[in-house]
Amino acid sequence: MTDETKPIGRPAKRAVAAKKKGSRGQVGRPKGDAAIINEYKARMLASPKSRKVLETIFDAALNDEHKNQAAAWKLVMDRVLPVAAFEKMLSSQVVKTLSALTLLVLVLLQSPVNKQKITTLKESMLSLNASQSVYKHFELSEFDCQETGENNMSPNFLIMLDKLREACGFPFVITSGYRSPQHSLEKDKPNGGGTHTKGIAADIAVSGGFQRYRIVEEAIKLGFAGIGVAKGFVHVDLRHTDDPVMWTY
Q1: Per-chain mean pLDDT for the chain
Q2: Which of 1, 66, 186, 192 has a CA 20 to 30 Å removed from the CA of 8?
Q3: C-alpha distance across the termini of the chain, in Å
C-alpha cells in the first residue's frame, strides 16, 4: 500500500474557487454597488463632457418652467446637502437653506472662477442667519396671493428682485406677487395663468416717472425678460425666452 502525503492546513482560496460549480477561478467577493458607483464616478470626472452634464443639471434646477426642475434640485442638494438633513429642520430653516443654495449656484454659474471668490454654502448660511431674514429688503409674506393667501414664489426670482431693489436705492412696495391659478386675473388665461402663477413675477408700486425709469433701467441690466409699465406700477418677471419683451398698460 502506497502512502500519500496529505496537505496540511486549509486549502488555498483559488483551489476552492476552482472546484465550485460555475466558478471561473476568481477570488474574493464580486464587485458591489459601491465599487461600481466609484468606477462610474471616476469615469465621469475624467470625461471631457462632465462639465456639460453639470451645467445641464444646474440649468434645469434654475428653470422654474423645466419639467424636471425638482429632480435636478434633488441632484444638486444631495451632493451639497443630504436631503435627510431637511427632516430635522423647521420649515423656515428649509427656506433659508434653499435660498442659500440658489444664491450659491447663481454665483458659481455667473462668475468666472479665476475672478470671483467662491462663497461656500456655510458662508451663505451664516450671512442669512446674521440678518435673520432670507432677503435683505423683503419678507416672503409680501408676495402672498391676495385672494387665496398661497405663496409659491421662486427663490431665484426673489434673490434677483432683492438685487433690483438694491440697485434702485428706494423702497419697493409690492402690489402683486404670487397669484394662484384660480386668481380672478389668472383663471381665464391659457396654460394655467401667466408669470405671476409661476412665482417669477411682481408688480412694484411707483409714485412718478423717476421711479419708473430707474426700475426699468436696472431691470434691463439685471436680465429681467418681461417688463410692463403702468402709471402706478412696474411689472418685472423672469420669463424664459430668448427675446425679452416690454409693454405698457
Answers
A1: 77
A2: 1
A3: 113
